[in-house]
Write a structure and sequence with these properties.
With 403 residues, the protein is of the alpha+beta class. Helix content is 20%, strand content 35%. The protein folds into two domains: 218 residues, P-loop containing nucleotide triphosphate hydrolases (Rossmann fold); 134 residues, Nucleic acid-binding proteins (OB fold (Dihydrolipoamide Acetyltransferase, E2P), Beta Barrel), CATH 2.40.50.140. The N terminus is likely disordered. It binds adenosine-5'-triphosphate and magnesium ion. GO terms for molecular function: ATP binding.
């Protein structure tokens, strides 16, 4: 592996890269890494298909970098195997793996021009046409016009793109990106996220992008693996993780969730009826981790409609079906206790007797913003409700500091 963008210059390369497998992605099987008594990566099984944009998302210290370092060959697993294209690469030396890494700190060779930085690895390997190949990749990252500059004459975002070009030019099977945008300010970060997605689509390499930023993972990746304390909590396309979280950690770490303690009362076709305080509600049993006992029932804040008492919703409690057969859950008797106006939307805290505090995000469609103390009713399409294990700590993932 060539540690492109690491703090120190790239290590000398010896040998030739492993023969490139013709197909197949990356597989982690039962991967464990212990440092003394501490388990940093705890039985991770992952199947990463070739040619996609894969994100590993989780809070600081959850084991993302350790997992990446094992894929790169910089750390040897305590247990488990790593396969690339069906080949076991667990024991393969870093520089013989068709894997490159781009780190957050992308120190380039300061005394070399941009193009020479990019061509460096190729020249070391005595690759024919190093300069022409480097030029092509510079075009891809839209830096051709700055090819003769020195790194210190570039902005942070431009330097990051040079680091990326240095990795891509080696045509690795897999590109590992460890918080590569971490040093950039928010605006540049957003811009580079789009750039990275475009570049990944154009080159078609497998990107494994490590981040603690949920927006970044959601906007860039085809598949996101949410990691917590060394384990994969859930894996799937961003919409699926958001729409149907399977653990409290995922429900709270990816966006916000209202989680309400409830008890299953009964089952009726695809529906479960649950009781929470004095209210009853319905949810689809296939969006629920269990069909009986205690549950944490979840609903995303933007799925809830808020209406002042006095409108059509007044007095409606529990569950009802509208004329189109859509099933709604309703909570009546709420009072707005806090609100944050953000322009496009308003975020309300509503105290509901017997339930507690419910968060609602309302789009300011007509500008009719409510006020603290207003009495309101809440309703949402029952099909958006999800059910999680009742014994999970309700704030898991909500209070973790971003890495
Ligand atoms: N060489 C090491 N020796 C002992 N403990 C280590 C070592 N490397 C990592 N750890 C520990 O393993 C855990 C996971 O570290 P890792 O760097 O993988 O986290 P991370 O998810 O990348 O976090 P961040 O988002 O802050 O970069 C941490 O608690 C860390 O302190
Ligand atoms: Mg890390």
């Amino acid at each position: 592996m060539n540690a492109v963008g690491s703090m120190s210059p790239a290590p000398p390369e010896t040998g030739t890269p492993a023969t490139r497998p013709t197909s197949g992605g990356l597989q982690l099987r039962g991967l464990v890494k212990r440092f003394g008594d501490f388990t940093a990566v705890d039985h991770v099984d992952l199947e990463i298909p070739p040619g996609g944009f894969f994100a590993l998302l989780g809070p600081s210290g959850c084991g993302k970098t350790t997992a990446l370092r094992m894929i790169a060959g910089l750390e040897f697993p305590t247990e488990g195997r790593i396969f690339l294209g069906g080949q076991d690469i667990t024991g393969v030396k870093p520089h013989r793996r068709p894997v490159n890494t781009v780190f957050q700190s992308y120190a380039l060779f300061p005394h070399m021009s941009v193009i020479d930085n990019v061509a460096f690895g190729l020249r070391r390997r005595k690759v024919h046409d190093a300069r022409a190949k480097a030029s092509q990749v510079l075009e891809l990252v839209e830096l051709s016009h700055l090819a003769d500059r020195r790194p210190q004459q570039l902005s942070g975002g431009q330097q990051q793109r040079v680091a990326l070009a240095r990795a891509i030019v080696n045509e690795p099977e897999v590109l590992l990106l460890d918080e590569p945008l971490g040093a950039l300010d928010m605006k540049l970060r957003r811009q580079m996220q789009l750039e990275l997605s475009r570049i990944q689509r154009e080159v078609g390499l497998t990107f494994i992008h490590v981040t603690h930023d949920q927006d970044e993972a959601m906007t860039m990746a085809d598949i996101v693996a949410v990691m917590n304390e060394g384990r994969i909590e859930q894996l799937g396309p961003p919409e699926e993780l958001y729409d149907q979280p399977e653990t409290v950690f995922v429900a709270n770490f990816l966006g916000k969730s209202n989680l309400i303690e409830a008890e299953v009362l009964g089952e009726d076709g695809p529906w479960l009826t649950i009781a929470a305080g004095s209210a009853q509600a319905r949810l689809l049993s296939d969006r629920c981790v269990s069909r009986q006992g205690r549950l944490l029932v979840g609903i995303r804040p933007e799925k809830i409609a808020i209406a002042p008492v006095g409108s059509d919703d007044e007095g409606r409690h529990g569950t009802f079906a509208d004329r189109d057969g859509e099933v709604w859950n309703t909570l009546a008797g709420g009072v707005v206790s806090a609100m944050t106006y953000t322009g496009v939307s308003t975020e309300y805290q509503v105290e509901v007797p017997g339930i507690g505090s419910v968060e609602v995000f309302a789009q300011n469609l007509a500008g009719d913003v409510l006020a603290i103390g207003d009495r309101v009713s809440l309703r949402w399409r029952a099909k958006y409700t999800f059910g999680l294990a009742g014994d999970e700590p309700i704030s898991a993932g909500a209070e973790v500091e971003p890495g």
